[in-house]
Amino acid sequence: MQVLHPASWPRPRGFSHGMAAQGTVVFVAGQIGADPETGEVATGFAGQVAQALRNLVAVLREAGAGPEHIAEMTWYVTDLAAYRTAGADLAGAWRETLGRHFPAITLIQVAGLLEERAMVEISATAVVPSAGDASR
Description:
Elements (H helix, E strand, L loop, with lengths): L1 E3 L13 E3 L3 E9 L12 H18 L7 E8 L2 H6 L1 H12 L5 E6 L10 E9 L8
Helix pairs in contact: 1-3
């Protein structure tokens, strides 16, 4: 996977402007911060993000993919202030789940989500390299 970053632009923090990749494309539906087995929604914004990221990685594993294969993510949040306030906790959840991989990300504030208790929903597109193309 190749990070796309115009040379004259300042480096973004926590995301990439674009990604290029070849391989099998995997689309992950929006994941919320609820335990998939119990349905219990995590407490707080950072807790919900951490659970949503774990859910997303679990779906990727079903396709033989991992966090390093994520090319693009879209975050839908119900409260931008909660997102901004949770900064350090979000960074910790990110490192635990996705490591140092920073795909292209779009963050959108929405009025609400289907699960009324959800504060965040995260969808992703990943690209798993073809067998002979492991360098991408």
